[in-house]
Amino acid sequence: MGLGPPVQPKPGSLDPRVRFRQRVQLARKRGSVAAWMAAENAKGHACACGCGKLIRILPSHHSRGIPRYLRAHRPMAVTMETR
Ligand SMILES: [Zn+2]
Fold first, then answer.
1. pLDDT in tens, 48-60
2. Within 13 A of 14's CA, how many CA atoms are on the CB side?
3. Ligand 1 mean position to 69 CA, how many Å?
């Protein structure tokens, strides 16, 4: 009662700082992903099909997850058989 609408800051005024922050966070994230990649590559992830070859860890695997099989080694027949 008697309270006016809250004063909203201009949306454009915060932009540069936010952008800068995101850039810094991205750079930090990249560094940690590189460290993660090195650690996972050092561990060694063998292909789950049994060929014994090691899966090369890529930066995209950090967010998506490490695949269990090498690219061409994923048994497609398994998904067809399961009903
Ligand atoms: Zn394999």
1. 999 999 999 999 9
2. 7
3. 6
